[in-house]
Amino acid sequence: MDQKNRVRDAWNEWSDTDFAKYRTDERISKLIARPESAFHPTTYSMIKEVFPSLRGKRICVPSSGDNHAVFAFHLMGATVTSVDISERQLENGAAIANKHGWDIRFVCDDTMELRHIKSDEYDFVYTSNGVHVWMNDLNAMYRHICRILKSKGAYIMYEVHPFTRPFENNTTKLAIKKPYDAIGPFGEIPAYTWRMQDIVNAIVSSGLGIKHMEEMYAEYNTYWFEVSGERETMSKEEVDRLYQWEHNPLAAIPQWLSVYAVK
Fold first, then answer.
1. Are 132 and 202 contacting, i.e. CB atoms less than 8 angstroms apart?
2. What are the E-state strand segments in 28-182?
3. Taking the model in full, what pTM does it have?
4. CA distance 119 to 147
5. The domain 3-167+182-230+255-262: what is its CATH number?
6. Are 69 and 44 in contact (CB under 8 A)?
7. What is the DSSP letter of 39?
8. Are 255 and 247 in contact (CB under 8 A)?
9. Mind listing the pLDDT tens digit for each residue in 6-59?
């Protein structure tokens, strides 16, 4: 089985197991009440600076995953296309959209191909956390993102910062698990830990021009242990200490990366 099929099959399974928690009525209700909560605060500030209003904008979200960004953009007035390689992620996302009467287009496609997405169609393309790790060809991914954007269209990404990749998840000392330039593929379901230069060079070579970049450190409700659910087992004091680099050296390393580029 080739890499693409292994990734697709894994996500079809995870959609109904590990990632079902992102579709609960409680999670979706919170998203409806505060659509901006689908984004890291710094990334949302970048979006608002580029698009003070999203009403009427055409937005494509490749590798849309849990579709939270897709739902948020729709609630903010945009016309949104959700694209993912996983049929189950799309079906589960479409079920929520249908339940709430949201007019969102769902397309099954590979982000490195976007064969079913027309060129020069979108004002804005957004990719969220956890996209790059599944791509074996960043140049192809960005070539097609550039292709589907209108002239002067914007691309904004939010992703795990590559500088975190060499380190173990150890909050008492910095422990190296791999060299920074070992990018993979790793694991039975092939994953890649791209470097900063790999991402930036792929964006630039696609024809997109980078306008702004933000490197974000740990903030409440955005750190790795909160995303994974570990926070529920910690006291407030333990959580507070994890944001202090004197106690947790990982807090001294940028956790997230956002890039804004223009066609």
1. no
2. 58-61, 79-84, 105-108, 122-127, 149-160
3. 0.93
4. 5
5. 3.40.50.150
6. no
7. S
8. no
9. 989 888 898 888 888 888 889 999 999 999 999 999 999 999 999 999 999 999
Give Cβ neighbours of residue 234 (< 8 Å, ≥ 6 apart). 225, 242
The values of phi and psi at residue 128, to 5°, are -110, 180
Match 């998203």 to its residue by tokens: 31
Give the span between the Cα atoms of 171 and 91, in whole angstroms. 38
**Would you tell me how many other CB atoms lie within 10 Å of the CB of residue 235?**
8
Where does residue 4 rank: exposed (0-12), middle (13-18), buried (19+ CB within 10 A)? middle
**Backbone phi, then psi, for 24, in 5-degree steps?**
-65, 155
Cis peptide before 185 (omega within 30 of 0): yes
Contact yes or no for 178/166 (Cβ under 8 A): yes
For the stretch 184-195, pLDDT in tens is 999 999 999 999
Do residues 139 and 206 touch, judged by C-beta distance below 8 A? yes
Sign of CA dihedral 46, 50, 54, 57: negative
